[in-house]
Design a protein that fits this description.
188 residues, mainly alpha, 7 helices, 2% strand
Length: 188
């Protein structure tokens, strides 16, 4: 099994874990120290915005179907069969997605945000599968999955719509109004 396929299997296992035994929730971020979860509205807002900023920086705006600069460059590297550039870009994109997962984990601490943020973590994991499929394609790996299929098989589409539905249950503190994140067009 070559390195790209091994990474795909690892990401598929992460996605299965995120969707599996824990009742549809995902595990804590893979870090030496797990960050404390948000306990205030301000902490939630900062983490929520950071998670979406990481998503938009890494892959673009899923609602608009627009690619980030990083994803557009990765797609170009795949088309050119430039494995070295694809590896570098995939690592950078994955770093942003992992930062997004960490931020979503923190945001889950807000009393009513847990279900939505758990789904956002699943979305970010699914995008990691998509990125890895692109990396594998650039390397010419035999059996490399279609990137969109990898995203869907990792539960990304289901998690996206579940996240949007769960956001309807977000409870704001009394006296607060919806706020738009400073770096991305997302409100909470």
């Amino acid at each position: 099994m070559n390195g790209s396929v091994r990474r795909l299997v690892t990401i598929a296992c992460m996605a299965a874990t995120a969707m599996g035994c824990a009742g549809g929730t995902s595990a804590a971020p893979e870090a030496a120290s797990v960050p404390p979860q948000a306990t205030t509205w301000a902490e939630f807002g900062a983490a929520y915005c950071a998670a979406f900023d990481a998503l938009v920086t890494a892959v673009g705006n899923p609602d608009a179907g627009s690619d980030s600069d990083l994803t557009a460059s990765l797609k170009a590297a795949v088309e050119a069969h430039d494995a070295a550039t694809a590896d570098r870009l995939a690592a950078e994109i994955t770093g942003h997605l992992e930062r997004g997962r960490r931020a979503a984990w923190i945001a889950r601490g807000w009393r009513s945000a847990g279900p939505a943020m758990a789904q956002l973590e699943r979305v970010l994991i699914a995008f990691e599968a998509m990125v890895e499929a692109r990396r594998a394609a650039a390397a010419g790996a035999s059996g490399a999955p279609d990137p969109q299929a990898a995203f869907e098989q990792a539960g990304g589409v289901t998690a996206w719509f579940a996240m949007l539905e769960a956001m309807r249950g977000l409870e704001r503190p009394p006296g607060t109004t919806p706020t738009t994140c400073p770096t991305v067009p997302v409100s909470y």
